[in-house]
Description:
Number of strands: 19
Order of helices and strands: EHEEHEHEEEHEEEEHEEEEEHEEEHHH
Number of helices: 9
Strand content: 25-35%
Largest sheet: 9 strands, mixed
CATH topology of the domain at 2-44 and 146-215 and 313-372: FAD/NAD(P)-binding domain
Mean pLDDT: 96
CATH architecture of the domain at 2-44 and 146-215 and 313-372: 3-Layer(bba) Sandwich
Distance between the termini: 38 Å
Helix content: 25-40%
Amino acid sequence: MSFDYIVVGGGISGAATAYYLQKSGAKVLLMEKGDLASGGTGKSAAIVRQHYSTPLMARLAKRSIDIFEAMPSELGASGGFAKVGYHLLLSPAMLDAAKANIEMQRQIGVRTSLLPNAEWSKLDWLNPEGVAGIVNEPDGGYADPVASVEAYVGAFERAGGTLRKKAACRALTRAGNRVTGIVTDDGDIAAGGVVNAAGPWARYLAESAGVALEMRTVREQDTVWAARGGHPIPTGSVSNGVDAIYLRPLGDGRFIIGRGFPKDYDDVDPYNYKTNADDAFVADVQSRLDKHLPGFAGAKLIASYASLYDVSADWYSYVGPRADIAGYFDFSGGSGHGFKIAPAMAQELAAWMTTGKVASDFAGLSYDRVKAGKLFKGSYGGNRG
């Protein structure tokens, strides 16, 4: 059996790419070594926002919001998108850059602004002491990462795509200057092209065919807290740049809360790493919780865990074909902020693969930029949004 394309990885990147390729009329196989969204996607806070420092990332984030909203009609199932708003609390050092970002974002149609000081009182959950500004995105919020993947895969299968779960891709096959398929426990499978969307394991898959992939795998920790009541809490997603934490609602007064940039990153082996959070990490998050969010005073820890980031050389995803090898396509290196832009990236990648046409800015995401020394500037050390 052979396919036009094989997509390796059943997270948001692989699931969305498989769907858009199948929708284009291609014959597609989606391979997942475990369960759908069982890697980094499933543990994503899934914060949806558009505040980026480059037009490329801002427009992809904006496009993804449109896609998340249209999932029920397009895919026949919801990705759990809740457009409940997003706020970014700015420290004095962040204010000027945020103003420049807002101006750029508004030029490409993002609805964003600095919240006027006179309206800060409407955020009854906020202690504004030391906050220099507040970015307001009414179209932001959060999604359900597992539901988003399941929506894509359900639509993919209804369109005729083939899904293989709990089926490991052991290696890529290669003939000369072309990747020709994959190796599985049940034998080789041929394809016209292979999309490497294996996340933290993508480097090893690429290297199986002698394809270089400069990427770190780092351990990322998160916590879940329940507010005790007695004081208002946010209804939307918040990036607290003053205290370097982020949070998004889970309902019933519970929130996913993690550490935002800047922070230390620990490189790990993706096949052998500690999956529960460190006590020191939990204590650090707790120490930051109620400084500007008094509703979290005395909050109760519900859970803590650790997952993985696949981090590129410049914190921007590797997406697209390469000049020096045919039949191989990257889609990895989400660097902790890949979930929110994956739908738009997958849509553009599928169009690039099937038509050969690509927007000039999106073409810059190809791994070819590493060899050419054309890395993106102003690297973004993301969070698991």
